[in-house]
Design brief:
Shape: globular
Number of helices: 18
Largest sheet: none
Strand content: under 5%
Order of helices and strands: HHHHHHHHHHHHHHHHHH
Length: 413
C-alpha cells in the first residue's frame, strides 16, 4: 500500500509541476495518472483485485463521491438553478438522460443476457452520467456556442446527483454479499433514505450558507477559515446523514444546491437594498480549497483506473464488453440527445456537439468501484469493473483528444 501511495503522489507532483507543458501536448491529468497507474499495476498484478475489493477502498470511494456531488452542485456556473437556458437543460436531464439509461440497460440485456435487471440498471447508472474531467477545457472552449457550453456544464453538474438514487436502488435490489431484495423491498429501503437525505441536505446547506454569509458580513471569518469550512461541508453533511440512516450522497448533492442558492439569495437581497457588495465573488473564493482537494481526489481515481486496467486486460476483455462501451459512449448518448432537442432552436451541429461531448470520468469511476465492492464476488461485479475501465479509457481518447477536432470551427462557418 505504501508503494502505491508513493507512486500516486510522485505522479501527481510530476503532473502538477509540468501541467502547462503537458496540456500543450494534450496530456491532461487523466492521461498522465492512468499511465502512472498502468505502470504501477504491471508490477503489482497479483494483488490488484484484493486491493480494489476492500472496505477501505469502498469508504474512500463513498467520501469522494459525496465531495464530488457537493462540488458539482455548487460549481454550476449560472446565477439561476437551471442556468441561462433552463429549457435546454431540462431536455437533456429529464428526457435524454432517462432515455439513455433505458437504452443502456436494453443494450446490456442484449449483450449480457445472463445479468439480472438490477445489475443491468447498475451498468446503465455507471456508464451514462457525464463528467468533464477527461475534457476539462471543452466546457470553456470559445469555439462552442454559449448555450452549448451552458447546457453541458449544468448537465454534468446535476446528472450524477439525479442518477445516484437510482444507482443505490439498483445496488440494494442486486443485493450485497448476504441477501437480495425484491423491488418493493428495495424501494421501501431507498425511499426513507432519500427523504431523510433531502431534508438533511436542505437544512444543513441552507444553515451553512446563512452562517457563512453572516460570518463574512460580521468579519468573523478569515479567507483561510472560510475555505476550510466549505471543505468540511460535504463531509459533515455525508456523515450526519448516514448517522440518521439517510442517503449521504443525495444529501451532499442537495446540500450543495441549498448552500449556493442561499448564498446567491442573500447577496441579491443586499444588492436590491443598495448595500455595498465588495465581496461579490466570496463564494468562488471560499470554494478554492475544495476545488483543489477535489482535483487531488480526481487524480487519485484516475490512478486507480490505470491499476484496474491492468487487471481487466490480464483477465481478458470480451468483444461484448468492448462493443457495449463503444455504443454507450456514442449512440446511446447521441440519439437520445437528438430526440430531446427536436423542436428546439439548436442547430444540427449544436445538437451533435451536446450529444458527442459527453465524457465519462470520476462519477463513472466511483460508481463502478462502489458496485464492484458491494456486489457479491462474481461475474456481475467483474463485468461492471471491466465496463467502467473501458468506458473511462475510451472517453479519455474520444473526449480528451478527439474533442479538440470535434469542436474546431468548420470552414465557411
Amino acid at each position: 500500500m505504501n508503494s502505491l501511495l508513493l507512486a500516486a503522489a510522485f505522479a501527481m507532483v510530476v503532473r502538477s509541476l509540468a501541467a502547462n507543458r503537458l496540456d500543450r501536448w494534450y496530456l491532461g491529468a487523466p492521461i498522465v495518472m492512468v499511465l502512472a497507474g498502468v505502470a504501477v499495476g504491471l508490477f503489482n498484478e497479483s494483488s490488484i483485485a484484493d486491493g480494489l475489493n476492500t472496505e477501505s477502498v469502498q469508504h474512500a470511494a463513498e467520501i469522494i463521491l459525496a465531495v464530488l456531488l457537493f462540488v458539482d452542485a455548487t460549481e454550476v456556473r449560472a446565477g439561476r438553478l437551471w442556468g441561462a437556458y433552463p429549457g435546454l437543460v431540462a431536455r437533456v436531464l429529464l428526457v435524454a438522460m432517462p432515455v439513455s439509461l433505458a437504452l443502456a440497460a436494453v443494450v446490456g440485456w442484449l449483450l449480457f443476457p445472463s445479468l439480472s435487471w438490477a445489475a443491468l440498471i447498475l451498468v446503465a447508472c455507471v456508464t451514462v452520467p457525464t463528467d468533464f474531467a477527461p475534457a476539462e477545457r471543452v466546457v470553456r472552449d470559445p469555439a462552442l456556442s454559449v448555450r452549448v457550453r451552458s447546457t453541458l456544464n449544468i448537465e454534468s453538474g446535476y446528472n450524477d446527483g439525479i442518477v445516484s438514487p437510482l444507482f443505490l436502488f439498483a445496488l440494494i435490489l442486486a443485493g450485497d454479499d448476504s441477501q437480495e431484495r425484491t423491488p418493493l423491498e428495495a424501494l421501501a429501503t431507498v425511499l426513507p433514505f432519500a427523504v431523510k437525505a433531502i431534508v438533511a441536505g436542505v437544512v444543513i446547506g441552507a444553515l451553512l450558507g446563512w452562517l457563512m454569509d453572516r460570518a463574512h458580513q460580521a468579519g468573523w471569518v478569515s479567507n483561510q477559515s472560510a475555505r476550510v469550512a466549505v471543505l468540511l461541508a460535504p463531509l459533515l453533511t455525508y456523515t450526519a446523514t448516514v448517522a440518521i440512516d439517510g442517503n449521504g450522497f443525495v444529501a451532499s448533492f442537495v446540500c450543495g444546491i441549498a448552500f449556493r442558492y442561499v448564498h446567491r439569495l442573500l447577496k441579491a437581497r443586499r444588492v436590491h437594498k443598495g448595500r455595498s457588495e465588495a465581496r461579490s465573488d466570496v463564494l468562488d473564493t471560499d470554494l478554492h480549497l475544495l476545488e483543489d482537494v477535489t482535483g487531488l481526489l480526481t487524480m487519485t481515481m484516475w490512478f486507480v483506473v490505470g491499476i484496474a486496467a491492468v487487471l481487466i486486460f490480464y483477465d481478458g476483455v470480451s468483444w461484448q464488453e468492448v462493443l457495449f462501451s463503444a455504443v454507450v459512449l456514442t449512440v446511446i448518448r447521441i440519439v437520445p440527445v437528438f430526440l430531446a432537442f427536436l423542436g428546439s432552436r439548436l442547430s444540427g451541429r449544436e445538437r451533435l456537439l451536446v450529444g458527442a461531448l459527453g465524457p465519462r470520468g470520476t462519477t463513472t469511476i466511483v460508481f463502478g468501484l462502489l458496485a464492484f465492492n458491494k456486489l457479491p464476488v462474481g461475474d456481475a461485479a467483474n463485468l461492471i469493473l471491466t465496463i467502467t475501465v473501458l468506458c473511462v479509457l475510451g472517453s479519455v481518447v474520444l473526449h480528451g483528444i478527439g474533442a479538440t477536432w470535434l469542436t474546431r470551427p468548420r470552414a465557411g462557418r
